[in-house]
Amino acid sequence: MENSIVVLVVEDEPMIQSLVQEALEDGGFQVEAVSSGEDAAKLLADPDRFRAVITDVNLGRDRMDGWDIGRLARETDPSLPVIYMTGDSAAEWAARGVPNSLLITKPFAPTQVVAAVAQLLNNPAPGAPGA
Predict the structure, then answer these.
(1) Per-residue pLDDT at 9
(2) Nearest Cα to 53, choosing from 113, 125, 128?
(3) Domain named Response regulatory: which ranges (predicted)?
(4) Domain CATH number, residue 84
(5) Is 129 among the domain residues?
(6) In the predicted model, what is the mean pLDDT of the chain?
């Protein structure tokens, strides 16, 4: 699977994490899933490991949140697609989300996750290689 597209999923709710992982795998992506921002930060230290990041916004009290993960991902790779998932923080996206990201509000259909990843991979951010 040398040429597979690996997506990092950061979600602290096991049922949602499983749903997102299954949808992405059914869509042909390889997935690495973690349940905390801190675990995601460790994985993002390798700038070439992932082709996209999907993160829940609220990952637990006094923990790194999805906004932090998005910023960290973009510090690692300025063109890395970032997708946020939230049930109650959508109003904060314009101020706290990274540019050229997407937001999916919960509840969502699993196909929305696959479509969001495909959209960002097929339409790279301005200034990204191949854009």
Answers:
(1) 98
(2) 113
(3) 6-121
(4) 3.40.50.2300
(5) no
(6) 91
Q: What is the pTM of this model?
A: 0.91
Is it the case that residue 129 has pLDDT exceeding 50?
A: no
Task: Tell me whether residue 128 is in a domain.
Answer: no
CA 19 to chain centre: 14
- Distance CA(111)–CA(26), nearest Å, equals 10
Answer whether residue 131 is part of any domain.
Answer: no
Angle among Cα 69, 130, 95 to the nearest 5 degrees reads 35
Count of domains observed in the chain: 1
Q: List the beta strands (DSSP E) in the chain.
A: 6-10, 30-34, 52-56, 82-86, 102-105
Its domain, for residue 84, covers 6-122
Coil, helix or strand for 12?
coil
- For the stretch 16-73, pLDDT in tens is 999 999 999 999 999 999 999 999 999 999 989 999 999 999 998 888 999 999 999 9
Is 72:45 a contact under the CB 8 Å cutoff?
Answer: no
**Domain assignment of residue 130, yes or no:** no
